[in-house]
Amino acid sequence: MAKTPFLALAVAVAAVTHGHLDHVGGLAELQSAFPEMGIIMHSNEAPYLVGPRKQQAKYSSVPSDNAAYTIVRSFLQKLLPQPEADPARTFLLSGDSGDVADARANVTAAQPAWLPPRGVLSFLRVPGHSPGQVALLHKPSGTLVSADVVMYGRGLAHLDADKLLELPFERLFPSHDDGTGVVPGALRKLVASFKQ
Ligand SMILES: [Zn+2]
């Protein structure tokens, strides 16, 4: 009897742009479903997501440039479990920009199951919205994931939005995007409108 073919899918690595609940709410399930999965984040974001809870700073005390989020967060944090990354499989980015391939293990002995090869994925730290928020640029496709620096549909650009214009992207996918993304010209207009 022929065996039924199936496709085994696995997530090798999760890149966390920042630790707000609407971006890491599924982290626990991902870690459980994919035990080998690595987790990448900026070292400035790590105190809120990695390590014993008692040693972590309270995320509710982190200043945010988004008043609406600050209010919603204060309620959500009482209702929802705080996402926590497994320290042994967390890899940290440092500095203001660089290649994701240079992420270093949070625990010295830990070895990444997989990291993007050099030249594929780069990061730019954009901390105006949270201490260690990063935008991620997939170089081969020119795709930029801006996290909450730009929010689709709300015309909302955070403090670091003009930094993104320095990156060689072809299409930017804002948070809460409908999947179509925006081109550099649209971001230029948005940034200009905030400076008027
Ligand atoms: Zn956010």
From TrEMBL:
Keyword match Signal: yes
Domain annotation Metallo-beta-lactamase: ranges: 7-176
UniProt KW keywords: Signal
Signal peptide: 1-19
Source species, domain of life: Eukaryota
InterPro entries tied to this protein: Metallo-B-lactamas, NDM-1-like, RibonucZ/Hydroxyglut_hydro
PANTHER family hit by this protein: METALLO-BETA-LACTAMASE DOMAIN-CONTAINING
Name listed for the protein in its UniProt record: Metallo-beta-lactamase domain-containing protein
